[in-house]
Design a protein that fits this description.
- The structure is a single chain.
- By secondary structure, this protein is of the alpha+beta class.
- The chain has one domain: Molybdopterin cofactor biosynthesis C (MoaC) domain (Alpha-Beta Plaits).
- It has 4 helices and 7 strands; from the N terminus they run βαββααββαββ.
- Strand 6 and strand 7 form a beta hairpin.
- It starts with 24 loop residues before the first strand and ends with a strand.
């Protein structure tokens, strides 16, 4: 296997990748995740149109996800600061779950996979925070990269 960790130098120390020699290209990434509820809690939330004492659960989580994307380099130590072109967080009801997707675009020297994954994670944590008074059996799962384009290698799950 020729692959090696990109954020570890020859001495084994953490190192931010030098992207100065890379071409600036349009980059895009999409990530997804899920917040699953006990059936009775989900039914209650759905009957209330996902409105809680703190306001709209879905709209608050969308805004939090967008903020998370914008703060990724502050949260993940070796991520580059990027000028983002577009962030879209979508949250759709599923079977006893809220399904989250986050799409991020930029024109940069490095990709936006971590930004998309962070957006999903922060949106999911916000949903949990807004609903935790109802149950601690709420779970966050399946956070994953679905697609990325614009770098050396495109990816699609």
């Amino acid at each position: 296997m020729d692959k090696k960790l990109s954020h570890i130098d020859e001495a084994g120390n953490a190192s931010m990748v030098d992207v100065s020699g890379k071409k600036v290209t349009a980059r895009m990434a999409v990530a997804s995740g899920m917040v699953r509820f006990p059936k009775e809690i989900y039914d209650t939330l759905k009957a209330q149109e996902f409105l809680g004492k703190k306001g709209s659960i879905i709209q608050t989580a969308i805004i939090a996800g967008i903020q998370g994307v914008k703060r990724t380099s502050d949260l993940i130590p070796l991520c580059h600061q990027l000028k983002l072109s577009k962030v879209d967080v979508a949250i759709k009801p599923g079977k006893n779950a809220l399904n989250i997707t986050c799409m991020v675009k930029c024109t940069e020297r490095t990709g936006v996979e971590m930004e998309a994954l962070t957006g999903v994670s922060i949106a999911a944590l916000t949903i949990y925070d807004m609903c935790k008074a109802l149950s601690q059996d709420i779970t966050i799962s399946n956070i994953q990269l679905l697609q990325k384009t614009g770098g050396k290698h495109d990816f699609s799950r």
